[in-house]
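Action item from last week, closing it out:
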Amino acid sequence: VQLVESGGGLVQPGGSLRLSCVVSGFTVSRYSMRWFRQAPGKERELVAAITSAGGSSNYADSVKGRFTISRDNAKNTVYLQMNSLKPEDTAVYYCNADRRPLGYYWGQGTQVTVSS
């Protein structure tokens, strides 16, 4: 099982990035998939989630209206579209799969830095 994130980088405030999480070893459409982030000195927090059945999504209040989680079943990939980025969005972003009872699976993370 592997979750590989990409798409992070340095962006100016107000800019956009799209993060990708390419999954191997299981089918993303069968499990809830989430994006977390962790800023320096802070706890890891849930940013966005998409369910398996129906594909409904939910978001942290801090990113509602700016971030969108989606998945491409054909590519077995989960995305996080991030618009109107703010300096406080700076963090390492992690892809996560809820495969209970097998457990939770994590990617290695991708750095997002929002700065002028």
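Closing note: The two ends are 37 Å apart (CA to CA).
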